[in-house]
Amino acid sequence: MPDFWNCVEFSHKLFREHIGKGAVVVDATAGNGLDSLFLAELVGDKGRVYSFDIQKKAVQNTEKRLSEKKFLDRVKIIEDSHARLEKYICEKEIDGMIFNLGYLPGGNREIVTESRTTLTALEKGLELLKRGGIIVLVIYTGHSGGREELDAILEFTSALKADEYNVLRYHFINQENSPELIAVIKR
Ligand SMILES: C[S@@+](CC[C@H](N)C(=O)[O-])C[C@H]1O[C@@H](n2cnc3c(N)ncnc32)[C@H](O)[C@@H]1O
Q1: What does DSSP assign to residue 109?
Q2: Could you tell me if residue 19 is inside a domain?
Q3: How confident is the model at residue 2 (pLDDT cuts 50, 70, 90)?
Q4: Is residue 77 within a helix (H) or strand (E), and if so which, with residue range?
Q5: Cα–Cα distance between 148 and 101 in angstroms, integer?
Q6: Which of 3, 18, 119, 160 is least surrounded, with the fewest CB atoms within 10 Å of its CB?
Q7: CATH number of the CATH domain containing 49
Q8: Is residue 1 part of a domain?
Q9: In the chain, how many domains are there?
């Protein structure tokens, strides 16, 4: 029997529907490079992906994954916080941005995304976002600080003006520690 999409699957489905070849997109949390790889395939050889992570290990893992597929020409991997994204993005507008929050799978669980920098990056991403563009956040709440980060994102995105943005919340309500997905489309 077909199941519902999990949050990562749903985030990719939303991107497939909104992002085409030649698009400029941001992976705010590169981690092990799975989202960056997905985005690199989606935007094609004329597109551009900016992938941020503060951890060297994540940058190395992402670089390895992308070089195996020969995608390093279309992906710029940046070892810095997504809160400083404007320093690196050359284009005036972006088509999309993805956040997969929390800690690096297989890495140090003490190094996690934080509400303050996540919100700064989200605000800067919204400023650059094209009309019709999409930002998706996948948020985990099982680790320390995760619930606070979700609450901060919910407070911020709930207050976005309805005539400018459509905001969706996607969540399995009967599963413990199930992540949350928030998607914002600029109208
Ligand atoms: C859940 S992982 C990302 C998984 C990744 N999207 C993938 O496909 O493998 C979260 C990542 O966010 C990174 N991170 C934490 N704070 C950050 C920040 N301020 N800017 C950029 N990355 C950050 C962590 O180092 C970690 O690698």
Answers
A1: T
A2: yes
A3: confident
A4: strand 75-79
A5: 12
A6: 3
A7: 3.40.50.150
A8: no
A9: 1
User: How do residues 33-52 score in pLDDT, each as one tens digit?
Assistant: 999 999 999 999 999 999 99
Contact 120 CB / ligand 1 (< 6 Å): no
Please report where in the chains the tokens 């709930």 appear, as a residue.
158
Q: pLDDT tens digits for 132-180?
A: 999 999 999 999 999 999 999 999 999 999 999 999 999 999 998 899 9
Burial class of residue 53, CB neighbours in 10 A (0-12, 13-18, 19+): buried
Boundaries of domain holding 22: 7-186
Closest ligand 1 atom number to CA of residue 62: 9
User: What's the average model confidence in pLDDT over 13-37?
Assistant: 98
User: pLDDT tens digit string along 67-76?
Assistant: 999 999 999 9
Q: Is residue 32 part of a domain?
A: yes
CA end-to-end span of the chain: 35
Q: Is 32 in the pocket of ligand 1 (CB under 6 A)?
A: yes
Q: Which two tokens stand for residue 57?
A: 């290990």
51 is a domain residue? yes
| Closest Cα to atom 16 of ligand 1 | 113
> Which structure tokens are listed for 144?
């320390």
Helix (H) or strand (E) holding 64: helix 56-68
- Closest CA to ligand 1's atom 20: 81
